[in-house]
Amino acid sequence: METTSVSSSRIQKFELEEDNELRFVVSGREEVTLELINGSAEVFGSVVEKNKKYIFPPGARVAVFTWKKATVELIGTANAYVSPETPMIMYINLHAALEQLRRIADNPTEKDRVGQGPRIMLVGPTDVGKSTLSRILCNYAVRQNRSPIFVDLDVGQNSISAPGTIGAIHINRPADVVDGFERTKPIVYNYGSLQPGDNNALYEKLLITLSQAVSAKTVENVETGISGVIINTCGWIADGGYAAIVQAAQHFEVDIVAVLDQERLYNELQKTLPKFVKIVHLPKSGGVEVRSSEVRLKSRNMAVQRYFYGTRGEQYFPHQFDVPFDEVTVVKVGTESVPEECLPVGMKPEDYSAKVVPFPISPELRHHVLALSPFDSLTQEISTTPVFGFVVVKEVDMIEKKMTVLCPRNELPYPRIFVYTKIEFLDDHNVPM
Ligand SMILES: Nc1ncnc2c1ncn2[C@@H]1O[C@H](COP(=O)(O)OP(=O)(O)OP(=O)(O)O)[C@@H](O)[C@H]1O
User: Fold this and answer.
1) 336, 196 in Cβ contact below 8 A?
2) Residue 264 burial by CB count (10 A; 0-12/13-18/19+): exposed, middle or buried?
3) Cα–Cα distance for residue pair 167/155, rounded to 1 Å
4) CB of 76 closer than 6 A to ligand 1?
5) Which of 58, 197, 334, 413 has the greatest number of CB atoms lying within 10 Å of its CB?
6) Cα of 132 from ligand 1 centre, angstroms
7) Could you tell me which of 420, 362, 430 has the C-alpha nearest to residue 391?
8) Cα distance between residue 305 and residue 297, in whole Å
């Protein structure tokens, strides 16, 4: 990738030519301020306002793209360079194709797709820019007065709720340049682990339930139906991961699959998916970060941190609660099946993948994120019903028989059925009780 400058000093000014992208990483411990001095620019599809200061936190990785020309200033410690090579033309062409399908859906003279706009799914290995392209496509859609549904099936790096979940949100305004999309009224299902392969059957059950909830939304609201659905997936593409992609395409009834980067996956999907599904192959941007497992862990911690504490632009003030053991039931979804050879002859093994079972309260729960179920007693529906939200277990006192949890609200909702997750978060803030 050709670059025009690389720098990390405190004040840096960049002149961007047509179709150039300024890429930077906030590399120090302090924030970095971005300002558009002249021209026009966007960050992952969100318009950057002239002379407004955008403050990015440490670790942020950003691309400021211009279709025309722009003068951009960065203040703070940032590794930055300008690249003249980006796939943005191809990404906007994809958006134009989606927009064309929305127009057809909106046109009552066309019989076949009336009322239902495109359903696109983005697939590819990890770190190819799937989440970023989803954000760009959602932004371009709302900038044309559309209101699509964004679905995130990535349980490892979910951008709607905590890690270990899948979910959907209705997008009706562009993403904030720094904080991304508003997460109001999301539909969130708790899967409880970072790898879909940990419990394939449960993952598929949740895919089905979420796809039904999304379809109901697209039928309920005409504008949403026409705007369509944009689906981000996780980077697990081998073996069971490939099967999960195919299942997701079927359950969400997608009509377009955009494969980022990997040609082999593109070829395989062409053979597997039905002919009416259009499959496109797109290059990844040279700016996309290849993240180590350490960086991935950090970004997951930041996602949980954001869930409880918000962002610089929108801070939350969570509370801590002591919960006596007798006021809470902890459950787990999915247990080991009894091996066939241990069952009486002729008996079929039961499907334990989504079985809801009590989980003993013990110090093992410390630092675990637990989901809040809307049910008031142990029922099998817990496994496939959206959750209220999450708490983090800060302490488990086996002598006093109580646990201390961090909750985003100043009230801990009843009923108190907490669902175990494997996700851990070390909260080092002092929070009021
Ligand atoms: N053009 C770009 N320039 C600089 N950074 C970028 C660019 N595009 C994406 N990034 C950054 O690269 C990182 C990875 O991108 P993204 O999350 O979109 O990849 P992904 O394929 O969804 O990854 P995964 O499947 O692992 O979740 C993010 O931090 C994102 O901000």
Assistant:
1) no
2) exposed
3) 9
4) no
5) 334
6) 6
7) 420
8) 12
Token readout for 337 is 């099946």
Is the beta carbon of 63 within 6 A of some atom in ligand 1?
yes
pTM: 0.93
3-state helix, strand, coil in the chain (%, to 5): 25, 30, 45
CA–centroid distance for 86 within its chain: 23
Measured distance CA(298)–CA(60) in Å, rounded: 11
Bridge partner residues of 368 (DSSP) = 424
Q: In this structure, what token pair is assigned to residue 288? A: 């996309």
Q: Which residues lie across from 42 on neighbouring strands?
A: 47, 65
For residue 108, what pLDDT is reported?
61
- H-helix segments, 59-125: 88-105
Give the count of beta carbons closer than 10 Å to the beta carbon of residue 210.
Answer: 25
pLDDT average per 10 residues of sequence, the chain (433 residues): 52 95 91 96 98 94 96 94 96 97 81 76 96 98 97 95 96 96 93 92 96 95 95 90 94 97 95 96 92 89 93 90 94 77 64 89 96 92 94 96 93 88 87 65
- Report the pLDDT value the prediction gives residue 429, as an integer from 0 to 100: 74
Give ipTM to 2 decimals: 0.98
CA of 285 to the centre of ligand 1 (A): 9
- Residue 192: name the closest of 292, 301, 294, 331 by CA: 331
**Nearest CA residue ID for atom 4, ligand 1:** 287
Quick one: how far is CA 335 from the chain centroid? 26
The beta-carbon contacts of 210-215 under 8 Å, at least 24 apart in sequence, are: 210/151, 210/153, 210/166, 210/167, 210/168, 211/251, 211/252, 211/253, 213/168, 213/187, 213/386, 214/149, 214/151, 214/168, 214/187, 214/252, 215/253
Phi, psi angles (nearest 5°) of residue 418: -100, 135
CA of 20 to the centre of ligand 1 (A): 18
Ligand 1: which of 122, 126, 131 to mutate, most ligand atoms within 8 Å of CB?
131
Report the distance separating Cα 281 and Cα 327, nearest Å: 53
Instruction: State if residue 287 touches ligand 1 by the CB under 6 angstroms criterion.
Output: yes
Q: What pLDDT, on the 0 to 100 scale, is given for residue 101?
A: 94
In whole angstroms, give the CA distance from residue 258 to residue 137.
12
Number of H helices, E strands in the chain: 7, 24
Domains of the chain: residue spans and CATH:
6-86 (2.60.120.1030), 88-282 (3.40.50.300), 317-424 (2.40.30.330)
What residues form DSSP beta bridges with 1?
none
